[in-house]
Amino acid sequence: MRPPVRLLYGAGLAVALLLPVAAPAPATSPARTPTALPAADGKKGQELPGMPAALDPRADEAACTPASGEKAKKQDWSRQRLDLDRLHGHSTGAGVTVALISTGVDPEAAGLDGRVTAEGAAADDCVGHGTFLAGLIAGTGGGTPKLVGVAPRAKILALRGTDRRGQPDPALVTAAVREAAEARADVIAVAVALPRRDKALTRAVAEAGRAGAVVVAAATPDPPSRGSADEIPSRTYWPAGEPGVVSVADMLPAGTRPDGSLPTGTVDLAAPGAGVVSGGPRGTGHYLGAGVAVATAYAAGAAAVVRATHPDDSAEAVTRRLTATAYPADIPQLDAYAAVTTVLGDAGPPAAQRAAAPVAARDTSGTDRATGRATLVVLLGSAGVLAVLWAGFGFSRARARGWRPADAGPPGRR
């Protein structure tokens, strides 16, 4: 009977050793895992005035956004999420021009260091939103280096796509896209989203693509300040819906889209869009900003550092880098550092496909914790099985010896 017993225990030990290998694997195993992030800075002591995307259109005379008297006390979560400290060891966007189509940009704004070209109405940023976005793309942070933009050595070509109060104008957007293409801008960031497709704008975007520009656009407008966004059906906005345009949505620190976001099925990337800190056109203070335009500015900055690092890449290749290296989620999440440093093959990973229905970015912050707990449970279970099997093996050997010690001789010998 002894051989079968040994065979049984040997098989049990093998099963116990193989248990950790057979443990269920997570549904996905991406190469990178987002760092745990704090909540938006507005809830963490960054008491700063908000930067509006537009001024009240109903007011007879809307006063421009006043200068902020407050300074940020720390780096916000968005710059940590994009890993800008490491990114700038590889690329700062030097030699690249980003055309920003928004409310205009103040050429003398703090942190932009004379790298802004703005003519006529584009140099008058009453709202302040365009200057705020320019800081996220190419700002040096002024006296606060931790608030540097994604591409702090890139140049900004400021173009107006709204009226003076920040209301989008299709004719202005179309003219701005054409001007950016004629100026041979490397990246064109359209920070506004229009509800209707316009043939002239479609042609302008196509011309910009043929000129070699990477066009990045807001996937949706910001939700209405009054009423419920839930009542608005999913739709495509423009020029984000045009072929070849990188469509960008905003996300919270957890990776989810903000409550009340307008639904759309045409999103290529999600980027930070809440509790983000930047400067404005007046003074040296800071503001808190949020929304799809903020996320679009971050994606445009990422396109700039990619173009600086890979100057021979076509616009299509830059777009593929941004989408193929994004953190995998329902809406791929922008990873500027990976976009610059990842070595892609000739074919490379498939670019992100636009969703056929409204989607929301997945909260991936608990993945590592869940995987760690599962691994610990499996290891403890395996140890328990080994202990039981070893005890059983010792029990059978002791009984076979007649309960004598292992070093004792046969019965009757001294």
TrEMBL record:
Any one Gene Ontology MF annotation carried by this entry is:
serine-type endopeptidase activity
The transmembrane segments are 374-395
Q: Where is the composition biased (Basic and acidic residues)?
A: 70-79
UniProt keyword annotation of Signal present? yes
For the biological process aspect of GO, one term held by this record is: proteolysis
User: Which residue stretches does the UniProt record annotate as biased composition, category Low complexity?
Assistant: 26-40
This chain belongs to which protein, by name? Secreted subtilisin-like serine protease
Organism from which the protein derives? Streptomyces griseus subsp. griseus (strain JCM 4626 / CBS 651.72 / NBRC 13350 / KCC S-0626 / ISP 5235)
Traced from the root, the source organism's taxonomic lineage reads: Bacteria, Bacillati, Actinomycetota, Actinomycetes, Kitasatosporales
